[in-house]
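Revision sheet: structure tokens.
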Amino acid sequence: MTFDRPPTAGRGQTLLPAPVAPSSPEAVRLLRIGWLTDPALSELPIEELLTELLDRVRTVLRADTVVVLLVDEGGRELVARAAIGLEEEVEQRARVPLGAGFAGRVAAGRTPIFIPEVTDADIVNPILRGAGVRSLLGVPMVVEGEVTGVMHVGTRAPRTFTGDDAALLQLAAGQAAPAVARARLHQALDREHREAAALQRSLLPGGVPDVDGFEIAARYLPARSEIGGDWYDVVELPEGRIGVAIGDVAGHGVAAAALMGQLRIGLRAYALSAEEPAETLPRLDRLLRSLGDGMATALYAVLDPRTGVAEVASAGHLPPVVVRDGGARLMEIAVAPPLGTFACSRYAQSSTTLEPGAMLVLYTDGLIERRREALDVGFERLRATVRSEPAEEACARIIETLVPPLGAGDDVAVVVLRRTG
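Predicted:
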């Protein structure tokens, strides 16, 4: 008969029994702390985080209800945001004034509060009584010294919550509070970005005119984060000519968008009274200077549908692309300083002739610039993308090929003009 010999430890090593579930109070407490402060929770979207965290709180504290209330934008009330066992609070968006009732006093006093018997306490939320909750424990949610909400648990049988229970609940509240703050910040930034983008779109043309002799297509895409000052315009001029402008105001946000709107309206007015692009840009430069500090690039072209001649002047803006059956090339133009930088009373003017089927493509730097990449690479990428085709199809191809699916890091404006003959 043989016997299994117990394994022996190496020198300086001690064998321990196989791990089992912790049984000592201290081990159980540490396990609960680790479960409530699990770093993986912070990687979850806010809805999943609250759902998972509240479920863990209910398990760890053996509670029947768990609720998170957040301070509203006015800073005067707590609004139910997530709950287990008291879901009707969230459904009805229950509100508690700061300083009033159980949760309101927790927030105002910035301290945990334990209520052994709800029927004997000052409770302003009727849902708690209606749900049969008997005992409550609540703690404040604090981020960078500011109270952002309250987390509380309850039981339907009388219960004495201890200081350890309050410490565990405070750990959970400390896990939830920063996540909620981040989610609110992202929502606010997203709302601000949408409002700024809507403002900028309202300052751009609602569409492009139908012009005999040319197909015209245009696109504007705001940056995926903060909008800039990109703009374009197409103006019908006397004698059947058309003026096409594109530009980029330095800076980002609402201020850049507002300045862009002023420049676009100014250029439209000057274009209708000036004969040539070289006469229009100096006036726009003076307008920008009169508005205060600011800088912008701009390119303005006047095209004659009868002859196909395009006269172009640039204030620091990127050269247009001319597309013919033989391929695409950058138009050679004389470039003056950007608007608002150096007083420039004279702008050189360049010209090209578009045969039927040829195209002129105007764009802003957000279309071709990439970090840590030479500008020539972006020019080549654009040249390789464009081809002689209907203007709308060409514009769609440029955006689809050169703008990332989630949006560019900078605003993008594109105008495509194709001479039809």
